[in-house]
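Lines hold sequence, tokenised fold; shown next:
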Amino acid sequence: MPEQPRPIPFTEDPAKLDAPVLVTGATGYVGGRLAPALLARGQRVRALARSRTKLACRPWAHHPRVELAEGNLLDYASMRSAMQGCRAAYYLVHSMTGMAKDFAATDRSAARVFRRAAEAARLERVIYLGGIMPPEDDVSHHLLSRNEVAEILMDSTVPATVLRAAQVLGAGSASFEMIRYLVDRLPVMVGPKWIRTEAQPIAVGDVLAYLMGVLDAPEAAGRSFDIGGPDVITYRELFDIYAKEAGLMKRLVIPAPVLTPKLSSYWVGFVTPIPPSLGMPLIRGAANRVVCQDSAIRDIVPFEPLSVRETIRRALQKTRQHTVETCWSDAGELLPPEWLRCGDAPYAGGDVLGEAFSVTLAAPVDKVWNHVVSIGGENGWYCGNVLWRLRGVLDRLAGGPGLRRGRRDPHELAVGDALDFWRVLDLRENERLLLLAEMKVPGDALLEFTLQPQGPDRTVLTQTSNFLPRGMLGLAYWWSTYPLHLYIFRGTLTAIARRLDAAIIDGPKWTTRKKGSSCKISF
């Protein structure tokens, strides 16, 4: 169920509703919710992301009033094309790579390209979601960067509206998931200094309301506004509220003021699905007191924001009901290996290694597909789960995502979804599931499931692994894990048959690997 917008004024002018509004970052956490919320109001939307393939798999992608566009904010030509004919644009993209030295420069460059394209397209309005700037001098690099983007967009002939928020809370948001996993998993936790710093979180539904409410408000043009919920609160208090709403005992927090943000990010990365690269800017931002300095926005978009307790209650409900529309891990570009493209494999550097096993099951293809597409996350990997968990721990220690990201929904997947330490690269219902490894591995790895119906109650299920090793280390990795692959592959196919309660007609058996099958993907 899409996020329900608050009861706010919205234009009913047919001319405005028919002129597209550009939503950048449309596969991200906020953009992926704003696009359908605008569509629900009757607004024509042009959704922009770096991957059209990811966009096309969003549940709202085939709405009659949506247009899909692929582009890069650093490329002026693609941004100028995306803005052609639009009346306004939302800027919902920013770097959350706190460990990258050049993230601020990248953000500045993207904002300048966006500003130039907006001026050339003669947009009526640009709306940017940034971060609240604290009054103190020692401000995190992440918040400084977002403020720089705001200043660049405001310095334009196109009127801009800047909304500045602290933590955005909602099912699937990075801040909420960090709280959820810390409290769920740690009855006793170390409390760094930043968990006692005050902030003014806001529900994601309220963010959407403000984003939509300022679109056609002339008094919002050329102005910046702080947006937040009614509560000024610390992370320590957020932990207590979450524990109570989740039915858990109050957590014991042991003060540890010497724990630096960098060490905290690794601690958070080990306990939660949030990687240190994302955890560091979150934690450094949490070290600053980010509280609204004014409430002028409420005169323009009048409604009562949700309390933190109600926000957490609703987020928990969505999480338990598996109705999370977007997740922090959705964002990012699909980067398939070059050798996936037709004619590129094998290429100079070595052949693609792999193996494939198939099984013929006495079951209809849709029933088999339901189990294939449900693999991973809390459902497990059907065979050798101890080995999968061990691989996840080793990956976390090496700086990878491990298995803690899980999956957005226990039964549904879409292209671009994170699936433990995999990413969904291609998905065709009842035909194919292709996963790209994002684990730390000396090479490029793919895991593919293909289904071939052979009559109404017979299906051939094939599981294929492809691996392009990097150097001798990659070759050593492949051959050292090869026996485990054989065990897990056969076991996975057998386990799917067992879960289906379906007879195995043939297999599991080794089968010829179709090296060219990956060229079926359109990028």
